[in-house]
Write a structure and sequence with these properties.
Strand content of chain A: under 5%
Strand order of the largest sheet of chain B: 6-7-8-3-9-10
CATH class of the largest domain in chain B: Alpha Beta
Strand content of chain B: 15-25%
Shape of chain A: globular
Number of strands of chain A: 2
Oligomer: heterodimer
Bound molecules: adenosine-5'-triphosphate, magnesium ion
Order of helices and strands of chain A: HHHHHHEEHHHHHHH
CATH topology of the largest domain in chain B: Rossmann fold
Structural class of chain A: mainly alpha
Radius of gyration of chain A: 19 Å
Helix content of chain B: 25-40%
CATH superfamily of the largest domain in chain B: P-loop containing nucleotide triphosphate hydrolases
Structural class of chain B: alpha/beta
């Protein structure tokens, strides 16, 4: 089943899709990684993060700067992007010691704004609103990626890696500890789970993969500026997770594909596009609040105290 | 050296003294009862033993080690596990998963093991699964292992909470009103079950309003009223104690 799916995916670039369609598929790929990574934090651990775009941006800038100034391999720049993002994830995870729920979400929102403002104003490093141009093509062991088909394969490989790692993690002792924290923090701690440690871990891992997605995006777009990593972007990623179904990796991947491609399909309708898009989201949430593939029982957890 | 020793433990909430200068001790393999009217401070004492509340004053020792003010997750690791008066299961998880979480402190695969699913990970997964099933068998919930815990009956949920606490292989098990909301049959079954815990070598501190249950299984009983300890002794002594009778029935009874 999985092998069938992967072989089908490897065939896609040979099916003669237009560059436009290829581009939408590659973008969907980036958002699948973003949605999967946010799902760890929001879907499984229960932390609503409004600052995911900041990790995405940090990964993109780290990777772009390393590639521009030092001409390093993509393998290195992507990992560096992930690691730097993870470091900020770790820092952002620390307030969870004192904050919870909405208050914590506000902190993540503030973080997103700070990162954007630093990006806009640290002219010597980021060139501010002018952004970074001429980001080189990704290079892996001497192989230069410059065609759509190659980008497609690269993002496919990244998705599979992200998927396997996050899935294995969720099934492990650490994964069920995260779900326990989402379900009932007091009971989780009474079971011997170090809440702070696991929340910080969830932030760091989530940020790591968002950073990797950012690296890919930077090399793929070859141009980035702080406008690509705003609060709107965070909301977009969060919508994918909620629409797809919190806590379901397959669901949020679908959510990412839907939310990238539907607005494109509606492009012909011009200004009505966003209206319809918004209406679809509202109707979806009213009729299926758990998302496309989310567990119907996962919402409205009854509290018995 | 006692298994658990509590010295002069006090907890104040603003002007209210919920627990007042309590001394208490437990030895290995004892089943001790903790009774008292509503608001006597029983649950507050549990919350201090498990690190959820920091005592205003006084000390707690577990096997001679000072555990006052230690974080709840470390207390579980050290060997004290509890259930909650208002059941706190992971409702969206299966019965088996609830017990697996109880095994958290007794397992140790790290992230690398988990991501690579290496041999160490697979071995541990196998042994924890086996252990979880064993525990479920003890409480009679083995057949229900794949059920979401929110679909269990009230009595079953109480038992699952005990199973989850037992999974951490505790030196002391704290049970907060395990029979609350159970019918007579379920209570009788629970009584038998708690007795078998003693055979498994467990040490139990039990809060319970069901007097028959307490008198039936506890070797010693502590009685609280308005935060203070008003009596301690064998079930027989407690039943005859004038102060206890007054606390429960009012003065002049
Ligand atoms: N977190 C808290 N903040 C303020 N007051 C509290 C808190 N926890 C407990 N109390 C108060 O402390 C007193 C003792 O409460 P506790 O829950 O320990 O009683 P209990 O003996 O367990 O009673 P019950 O049999 O009803 O469960 C009560 O007056 C209660 O209102
Ligand atoms: Mg109580």
């Amino acid at each position: 089943m999985i092998i069938l799916f992967i072989s089908f995916m490897t065939l896609i670039p040979f099916l003669g899709f237009s560059p436009y369609i290829m581009r939408i598929m590659i973008l969907s790929g980036i958002y699948i990684i973003l949605a999967l990574s946010l799902n760890l934090l929001t879907g499984f651990t229960g932390i609503v993060c409004l600052g995911h775009a900041a990790f995405y941006g940090i990964g993109a800038y780290t990777s772009a700067l390393l590639a521009i100034h030092f001409d390093l391999s993509f393998v290195f720049t992507a990992i560096a992007g992930g690691v730097v993002a993870a470091f900020f994830g770790l820092l952002l995870g620390l307030p969870t010691l004192r904050l919870n729920g909405t208050y914590l979400s506000m902190v993540t929102l503030g973080f997103c704004e700070i990162v954007r403002l630093v990006g806009l104003n640290w002219m010597s490093l980021t060139r501010g609103p002018m952004g970074l141009t001429g980001i080189p093509f990704p290079k892996i062991l001497g192989w230069v990626i410059d065609r759509d088909a190659e980008y497609f394969y690269l993002v496919l490989i990244l998705i599979i890696m992200t998927w396997v790692i996050l899935n294995n993690l969720i099934q492990s002792r650490a994964g069920i500890a995260l779900i326990a924290i989402r379900e009932d923090e007091v009971a989780a701690e009474a079971m011997g789970i170090n809440i702070l440690k696991y929340k910080v871990l969830a932030f760091a891992i989530s940020a790591f993969f968002a950073g990797i997605a950012g690296s890919f995006y930077a090399h793929y777009a070859s141009f980035i500026n702080p406008q690509s990593f705003t609060f709107d972007e965070s909301i977009q990623i969060l919508s994918m997770v909620i629409l797809g179904g919190m806590g379901s990796n397959l669901g949020v991947a679908l959510g990412a594909i839907v939310l990238v491609s539907v607005p494109e399909m509606l492009r012909g309708l011009q200004e009505y596009r966003m209206l319809i898009y918004g209406a679809v989201l509202v109707i979806m949430m009213l009729t299926r609040p758990q998302g496309i593939l989310g567990n119907p029982k996962a919402l409205k957890i009854p509290r018995n105290n | 050296m006692h298994k658990l020793q509590i010295q002069g433990l006090t907890k104040r909430f603003g002007g209210l003294t919920a627990v007042n200068n309590i001394d208490l001790h437990m030895d290995d393999n004892e089943i001790i009862g903790l009774i008292g009217p509503n608001g006597a401070g029983k649950t507050t004492l549990f919350n201090m033993i498990t690190g959820m509340y920091i005592p205003t004053s006084g000390k707690l020792f577990y096997q001679g080690q000072d555990i006052t003010g230690i974080k709840p997750y470390k207390i579980t690791d050290i060997g004290i596990a509890r259930t909650f008066q208002n059941i706190r299961l992971f409702l969206m998880m299966t019965v088996l998963e609830n017990v697996l979480i109880g095994l958290h402190t007794r397992t140790n695969t790290n992230l690398f093991d988990a991501i690579t699913k290496n041999k160490r990970y697979r071995n541990e997964e196998k042994t924890s699964h086996k252990r979880a099933i064993e525990i479920l068998e003890m409480v009679g919930l083995k057949e229900r292992k794949d059920e979401y815990s929110k679909n269990l009956s009230y009595g079953e949920q109480r038992k699952l909470e005990i199973a989850r606490a037992m999974a951490s292989n505790p030196g002391i098990l704290l049970l907060d009103e395990p029979a609350a909301g159970m019918n007579d049959n379920e209570t009788a079954e629970l009584t038998r079950f708690i007795k078998t815990l003693k055979n498994f070598g467990l040490t139990v501190l039990l809060i319970e309003h069901d007097m028959r249950l307490v008198m039936n299984i506890c070797e010693r009983i502590y009685v609280f009223d308005h935060g203070s300890k008003i009596a301690e002794g064998s079930p027989k002594e407690i039943q005859k104690n004038q102060q206890v009778i007054e606390a429960y029935l009012g003065k002049g009874a």
